[in-house]
Design brief:
The complex is a heterodimer of chains A (65) and B (503).
Chain A (H helix, E strand, L loop, with lengths): L28 H19 L4 H7 L7
Chain B lengths: L6 E6 L1 E5 L6 H18 L9 E3 L16 H4 L9 E3 L5 E5 L2 E5 L6 H23 L7 E5 L12 E8 L4 H14 L1 H4 L3 E6 L2 E9 L7 E6 L6 E5 L11 E6 L8 H19 L12 H10 L7 E2 L5 E2 L1 H19 L6 H20 L9 H16 L6 H10 L8 H5 L7 H9 L7 H11 L3 E5 L2 E4 L7 E4 L8 H9 L4 H9 L1
Parallel strand pairs in B: 3-16, 11-12
Antiparallel strand pairs in B: 1-6, 1-8, 2-7, 3-4, 4-5, 5-6, 8-13, 9-10, 14-15, 16-17, 17-18
The chains are: A mainly alpha (65), B alpha+beta (503).
Chain lengths: 65, 503
């Protein structure tokens, strides 16, 4: 039997709020992005292509691979 | 037998020329790659020598792993030989069909693949900047790290894994299909709408993958038509009696570093477990193509996938089973084949991501591309009361993958990162130290003016002798810094190197 048991959570208390332990993680962006979603939506019209319709229409690629 | 899971990624980028109508994507791609390569040649830095051309000798993309050679099916897709450079970090940078493409060097771990994939992004970003000098001031070349134009045209992000040739191919197909179809729940890059090959199929939906719409066969040789879930191109770029290179064409290009790490890390681990004989359960889909499409369309992650024994399983439950077998493999056989530390990290991240997908997928909006994109696009959609087919949502989908730092929505979101930017910068200039890519990259850095051509498994030197000298590199694990570093340091030129290698 493997010594390391998978920590699959029972459905009742499946909460993914614990951080991954012992893992290198250089940003804590999980919490940051939540707070910033509203800000991001506020500024997104400035970042988006000015004419979305034309941009989408003109984004034409040849098949690759 | 478990062989080291040497791996790499080849990414074809979408490309447009802003400010121009009806531009030729082949010349745009050539301009982009040439602008970068020329900038290296102009540079005074000794670490950036003039470009060396790619050597096409021995390439055989028409060889089929099922045992036959089918030139006829390959004939229409001969690669563009126009622009082809080998870089000092061991990468290949070139124009393939109508796209710029960057293939990472051979890497020993998924973490190194991530590092060199990010280095590739930096090379494309620098190329866009350099190309501005080649174009009229009102024109700009922009590249996108995605896989579809939203109108039925797709281009790939391929992975490669070194496998033991003695693993029966049929067994490999079954194992690979189970993972490729189900890993999409954390590897998918997300897409607004649906396509069919050559056209647009549906506006009113959001999909987990960019690519599922384009896959039509369970197994096959093609990559541009009737795309197969398992590609049979049998071109090992190594000793074909010992090795197989599995060419994986099903994946999405990822913006999230964690997604790239998981995509390559779980796949390498699973193949190692299969080679070790730890696949104690097999899962055969009744219809793999239908299963892949169902996974892509099911944001609830609950759709039952039909197996050929009459039972069903969800992608999530299937992933738990693969993780269980990989964990047993790690316990019983160790993780040397995938790099012990990286293998352990991948196992932990894999488990975390499956638990979180079950509990609350939106908590992965900083790690999983389709979730990050879905969260952003659907919030914008709610705020402005838009239908899914609105051009603004499709524009956001494309712009998620825009490589220009100031325009990239993926970058704006603030995805979790794993690699220090300084390490990415170093990976632009230096090859990985523990595969044959080290020998390739270092020879290029030191003796570029004496190298006639290079490819994955050989270098051709002009040492000044009567004939050109080809140095074969048939084992991807050999040619590391530990093995040939001192030897290279002791050689003043390529003639001494060739003599020393033959001694």
């Amino acid at each position: 039997m493997p010594e390391r048991e998978l920590k699959r959570k029972p459905t009742a208390d499946r909460r993914a709020d614990e951080q991954i332990d012992d893992l290198p993680q250089s940003t804590e962006s999980g919490t940051r992005i939540k707070a910033e979603l509203d800000d991001l939506l506020d500024e997104i019209d400035d970042v988006l292509e000015t004419n979305a319709e034309d941009f989408v229409k003109s984004y034409v690629q040849k098949g690759g691979e | 037998m478990v062989v080291p899971k040497i791996c790499g990624i080849e990414t074809e980028y979408g490309i447009i020329v802003r400010g121009a109508e009806g531009t030729n994507p082949v010349s745009a791609s050539s301009t982009l790659v040439n602008a970068y390569v020329e900038s290296l040649a102009r540079s005074d830095a000794p670490s950036q020598p003039p470009p060396v051309r790619w050597d096409f000798e021995d390439e055989s993309p028409g060889n089929d792993a099922r045992g036959h050679v089918t030139r006829a099916t390959y004939a229409p897709e001969v690669e563009t030989h126009l622009v082809n450079a080998v870089l000092v970090n061991g990468s290949r940078y070139y124009v393939d069909h109508a796209h710029p493409e960057l293939a990472t060097p051979e890497c020993r771990t998924a973490l190194d693949v991530l590092r060199y994939d990010l280095a590739g992004e930096q090379i494309l970003i620098e190329s866009m900047a350099q190309a501005r000098g080649w174009l009229a001031p009102d024109l700009e070349i922009v590249v996108y790290k995605n896989n579809s134009d939203g109108k039925g045209q797709s281009y790939g992000c391929h992975e490669n894994y070194l496998l033991d040739r003695s693993l029966p191919f049929g067994q490999l197909v079954t194992a690979a299909t189970a993972h490729f179809v189900s890993r999409a729940i954390y590897c998918g890059a997300g897409k607004v709408g649906a396509e069919s090959p050559g056209g647009r199929a549906d506006d009113e939906c959001f999909q987990i993958t960019q690519r599922a719409d384009f896959f039509e066969e369970p197994v096959g040789l093609e990559t541009t038509l009737r795309r197969p879930i398992v590609n049979t191109r049998d071109e090992p770029h190594a000793d074909a009696t010992r090795f197989r290179r599995l060419h994986v064409i099903i994946g999405d290009a990822n913006m999230s570093e964690i997604a790239t790490l998981l995509k390559v890390g779980t796949t390498a681990l699973w193949f190692a477990a299969v080679e070790a004989g730890r696949a104690d359960r097999t899962f055969t889909f009744a219809d793999p193509v239908a299963a892949f499409r169902a996974v892509s369309r099911d944001l609830s992650l609950a759709v039952p996938l039909q197996l050929d024994d009459g039972s069903t399983i969800t992608a999530l439950d299937l992933q738990w089973e693969l993780l269980r077998m990989c964990t047993e493999h790690a316990e019983l056989d160790g993780l040397d084949a995938v790099g012990a530390d990286v293998g352990d990290e991948v196992l932990q991240r894999w488990e975390y991501v499956l638990n979180t997908l079950e509990a609350d997928p939106m908590r992965l909006a900083d790690q999983v591309d389709w979730i990050a994109k879905y969260r952003l696009v659907s919030a914008y959609r709610d705020r402005h009361h838009l239908p899914w087919g609105d051009a603004r949502l499709r524009a956001m989908d494309l712009q998620y993958h825009d490589l220009r730092p100031e325009r990239s929505l993926a970058r704006r979101i603030g995805l979790a990162t794993r690699i220090d930017p300084a390490d990415v910068a170093a990976a632009v200039r230096r090859p990985p130290v523990d595969t044959r890519a080290w020998f390739r990259g270092e020879c290029l850095r030191r003796f570029a003016d004496q190298i006639v051509s290079a490819n994955w498994d050989s270098l051709v030197f002009d040492t000044g002798a009567k004939s050109l000298q080809r140095v074969p590199m048939m084992d991807p694990s050999k040619g590391t810094r530990d093995q040939v570093g001192a030897l290279l340091d002791g050689c003043a030129d390529s003639a001494e190197l060739v003599a020393a290698l033959r001694a």
